[in-house]
Amino acid sequence: MKRAVLDELEKILGQERMSTKTADLYVYGFDASIHHKxxxxxxxxxDAHEVSEIVKLANRIRTPIIPRGAGTAxxxxxxxxxxxxxxxxxxxxxxxxxxxxDLYCVVxxxxxxxxxxxxxxxxxxWFPTSPGSGEACTIGGMVATNASGMRAIKxxxxxxxxxxxxxxxxxxxxxxxxxxxxxxxxxYQLDRLMVGSEGTLGIVTEITLKLAFKPKASAMTLAAxxxxxxxxxxxxxxxxxxxxxxxxxxxxSVCIKAVNKxxxxxxxxxxxxxxxxxxxxxxxxxxxxxIVEEICRQSGAVSTEPTRDxxxxxxxxxxxxxxxxxxxxxxxxxxxxxxxxxMSVPISKIPEAVVAFQKIAERNGVVIGTYGHSADxxxxxxxxxxxFSQDSWRRGEKAVTEIFDKVIELGGTVxxxxxxxxxxxxxxxxxxxxxIETMRRIKKALDPKNIMNPGKMFEWQGSIIxxxxxxxxxxxxxxxxxxxxxxxxxxxx
Length: 493
Ligand code: MLT
Ligand code: ZN
Fold this sequence. Notes:
With 493 residues, the chain is an alpha+beta fold.
């Protein structure tokens, strides 16, 4: 990047809030995905005015510009594919207003999810979308991906709470969308367009969020099954009754074993478990817990363990959230990676989907852990690959393609909560075949110079195992080896 451009950035931000140091550029080339690419410069603006000046500069010199929150994105959203400017928004972390009487709050994009809920919780309210990375992820990142988590069945996703946004457009103009009222039918719902746009249409600099009441009580039961299919069937048996659990987390035996091995939590070592949470008025919670227990038994659960103890519920939830890192301890030579990681299927199709994923894993000689927010059909798989083996990555990619083909055949989507970016781009293009051209036109209308987070979603061409953070395809790569099912069984002991 030319010295003159860096000088202009320095005039906007000062030296302190920008960096071209090798170490900084290296770390800002990662997010939580499998990809890596180094940017040219990192900037840390403090307000919308500074963001606007940076974007105007990027627009003038046609340089890529990539907004970034905490870097918890799983598909390469903040990886600067074509280099350029990373805009780190974590210094814009003020909760500007909490208006309980009007049921909204106004926050900057760098506010961390759990920190916002700590403030709202004091008033008996919350922003309940519950992403797995809630301790670290930012509200801006959640808006960019329409993030959600385990409680979406009852409480919805980020888009259901966004009342309005302030957005710096690719020209540098500052636009306000939506309102501070709970209802609005006033023109195009541009905030809806921005939610889930993954930094390709502008940079969100302020978010107005609707507040929800915190439930007074909650309870959970841990139901164990000898068959993954039965556990999947139990989910739809619960959902088709007129009761509304706040979460049903499914874990297959690979995930159970990995979490037990890593954290020694003593989850039932069975083919599958469901963690079913109900919340609301204490009397309703008791009533619903009873019905849930009954359905579990009728659906083939071999054991259930109900609890109203908040510490126990938090502990189980914590062990569920630990699945992804725990899977990396499943076998010494594997790492757990986000490939085919957050598809959604119609709820009644869960049993068929989870069994199909297992067959695909076996057929391709890979290990897959299946888990997820099954109450709303949102399933996670994490693939265990040997990071140095090209063959392992190639088999993984083949399995991903087969998984997504199955998901699309079942009427599902390739991403329920993490978004598209790089890792899901070819499959999203398949899923959205007849609307992709409209997306392209919208992008072109708002960002004709294609500076905002370029090269992703509908622009991505080719394999998803490109720009890997692992050295499989570099000269440090190990010779290919095959993971056989014997080895899988050995790991699972
Ligand atoms: C979660 O459910 O914990 C997150 O979506 C991350 C993941 O495990 O894929
Ligand atoms: Zn999740």
